[in-house]
Amino acid sequence: SLDFSSYGEIEDKPAIVCSSTPFVIPPTTSVLSLWIWDETGFDFAWESGYQYYSDYRHPYLADMDGDGKVSILHVEDDHNQMYDWELTTTGIWEPPEDHHPDHFTLHPVYPNPFNPTTTITFTLPMAGEVDLSVFDISGSRVGGGLAPTRSYPPGTHSIQFDGSNLTSGIYFIRLQAGEFTALQKMVLLK
Hints:
Oligomer: single chain
Number of helices: 0
Radius of gyration: 20 Å
Structural class: mainly beta
């Protein structure tokens, strides 16, 4: 479904950029697409990767820095990030400039309840050591393929948790990064 769109020009040709929600899991996924006018109508030109657990908002076509290259700017407001894809003169899209979020977030796992895997997503405003652990109801740390402590760059990260070796029940995810700690409940149903 089409969520947001905007119009502009690329190399003096009309262009449309839009965000949409593809039919994938999780349902809070979005993607950006670009069409540029040619002699027969609008022709598909580019598509971004999926943005999971959030929506691309209000894409905008403009030469923001005055260098003659058009950018697609948008705000990913659920995680306080702004991206800029810039079209180079060779026609290749440069990687997005990621303005990092300003706070830590442990996002809801998806799916929850799960069987036997779920995805843990978290956002970091700065690089650092992260302790991501899962505990059972008694407070004992359990497996699931998570490395207990690891260094991550700033941005949003997703990790697959596998509970196939665990019994059905309630489990808790704990994220520790510096002075930040977050705890979340998840349910394994087999």
